[in-house]
Amino acid sequence: QVQLVESGGGLVQPGGSLRLSCAASGFSLDDYAIGWFRQAPGKEREGISCITSKDNTYYIDSIKGRFTISRDKAQNTVYLQMNGLKVEDTAVYYCATRRGSGCRIIPGWYAYWGQGTQVAVSS
Question: Which pLDDT value is given to residue 2?
């Protein structure tokens, strides 16, 4: 059974850091793309970053230089290191996956989703 489980969310002050994890079970992430998405209250789900099966990465402009996506094949986990957090980063963060080359930050492109983890940035 394909399953993704996010963890690592929490409450942090502006300028702080969090590392989100997206752990896969039931399959190997080696041949899969992973996307990170977030959804703030009252807003649509937004794609923010993705990593291909060959570890090429993509970021939207608002997180470039602050967030880093990475893959640990031994742990079958993808991470999103978030530094310099801002109030506007507050959202539920989701990871999603799909087998194949390339990656997208379009929700409909992905086949499997995690349950989400809450990130709150507040002073």
Answer: 85
Q: Find the length of the chain.
A: 123
pLDDT at 1 over 90: no
What is the rounded distance in angstroms from the CA atom of residue 87 to the CA atom of residue 118? 13
Cα dist from 44 to 1, 6, 40, 67, 108, whole Å: 28, 19, 7, 20, 13
Rg (CA), the chain: 13
Interatomic CA distance for residues 99 and 111, integer angstroms: 8
> Model confidence over 11-27: pLDDT tens digits?
999 999 999 999 999 99
Question: DSSP for 42-92?
Answer: TS--EEEEEE-TT--EEE-GGGTTTEEEEEETTTTEEEEEE-S--GGG-EE
Amino acid (one-letter) located at 40: A
Q: Does the structure show a pLDDT above 90 at 63? A: yes
Q: For tokens 């929490």, what's the residue?
A: 10
Largest CA distance in the chain: 41
